[in-house]
């Protein structure tokens, strides 16, 4: 059974900026957040960068993100996989492995 994630609002490009997200994830013992969003090359990228800097193992469902163009989204996903070591696969493949919670950016 999958847990429901708390909703958080964000005011900047990263879900970690000026929020209690890091405290919440640590409280829930999350080590591998799943990051989704509608701006792969902006909000998802900034959120994943901040998660990586806090030593989280990042998972991004490739079919749960989007950008203005497919090329922009693909370029951002490639960058996050190469630099941030993000696990990027389709949602169903990520869910087979399991995760404690998810983060929407």
Structure commentary:
The protein is of the alpha/beta class and 105 residues long. It has one domain (21-104): Isochorismatase-like (Rossmann fold, 3-Layer(aba) Sandwich), CATH 3.40.50.850. Helix content is 40%, strand content 11%. It contains four helices and four strands; from the N terminus they run αβαβαβαβ. The chain has helices at residues 21-27, 40-53, 70-83, 91-97, and strands at 34-36, 59-61, 87-89, 102-104. It has a two-stranded parallel ribbon. α3 (70-83) links the parallel β2 (59-61) and β3. α2 (40-53) runs parallel beside α3. It is globular and about 35 Å long. The chain starts with 20 loop residues before the first helix and ends with a strand. The mean pLDDT is 87. GO terms for molecular function: hydrolase activity. InterPro entries: Isochorismatase-like_dom, Isochorismatase-like_hydrls, Isochorismatase-like_sf.
CATH architecture: 3-Layer(aba) Sandwich
Helix content: 40-55%
Oligomer: single chain
* End-to-end distance: 23 Å
Query: For the record, what CATH class applies?
Result: Alpha Beta
Element order: H for helix, E for strand:
HEHEHEHE
SS-based class: alpha/beta
User: Taking strands numbered 1, 2, ... along the chain, how are they ordered across the largest sheet?
Assistant: 1-4
Care to give the gist of this entry?
This protein is of the alpha/beta class and 105 residues long.
